[in-house]
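Friendly challenge for the regulars: who can give me the structure tokens for this chain first? No prize, just bragging rights.
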Amino acid sequence: MRLLVVGAGSTGGYYGGRLAQAGRDVTFLVRPGRAAQLQENGLQIVSPYGDFTCTPKLVTAGQIRGPYDAVILTVKAYSLEAALEDLAPAIGPQTMILPVLNGMRHVEAIRARFGAQTLVGGLCRIPAQLDDAGRVIQMGKFHDLAYGEMDGSTSSRITALDAALKNAGFDAKLTSEIEREMWEKWTLLAALGGICCLMRGTVGEVAAAPGGGDFSAAIVDEVVGAVRAVGKAPSESFVASTREALTKVGSTHTSSMYRDLQKGAAVEADQIVGDLLRRAQQAGIAMPLLSLAYANLCVYQSRRAA
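First reply, four minutes later:
Bragging rights claimed.
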């Protein structure tokens, strides 16, 4: 199976690098600057499971010649429109697009641009980031990639994709509940991002502050309530574990959006927080705490733009 990984940042670089290391036919679609860096230094991954460097196959926009069997889309959500334009020549009648972006707005965008038949549901869970040298740094031991047909069916194409992704150095999982799991991840990211970015601290620091634990629990409940109304309801076990994890004193856990904010980088505020608020507003649901967090993030984005 010919795989095109769109992006070679912390997510695309890690999963694509592992696939290349396992001998899969992988090509990376990257920007010229990242292409030059990878050509000079190789794709370097620093991991608890062992460091490695590979020489990746690369293309930049305009260099794609014909369709791929599957496209793994790993860019930041705010880069989605440009990425869809760049990868368009890689899409044929049988091509699958497996996105691992945050939120759910990309689902609508992919369906609108290429048709519902191209879309495969997906999500990943990995604590990773690029360092100043462009190396992918895996900061924890979990590296999950889940995928499945959005309608929960077991098709021949998803079975073939599963075979290509399994046994490649990360935890790959075919699931019939991918849409619910995507909404659950969005629930976690919106609540965690709201807590950390508004309070400018780790989960544990917020929980230890006077009233902090109650605040965090209230944000979780607010987000869960909205998702139940506008999306796929999360399981009760997920809700319980999320509330416990996000109110835990001593936890050093933070959201990637908060880490980006601390670096002065672009953040996925509109895709993770703003889009959920928009859907809730359309359903007549008030989300005062998450609205406050979003206003705070918008101020940050305005200052950064200026």
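The mean pLDDT is 96. The two ends are 45 Å apart (CA to CA). Your move, everyone else.
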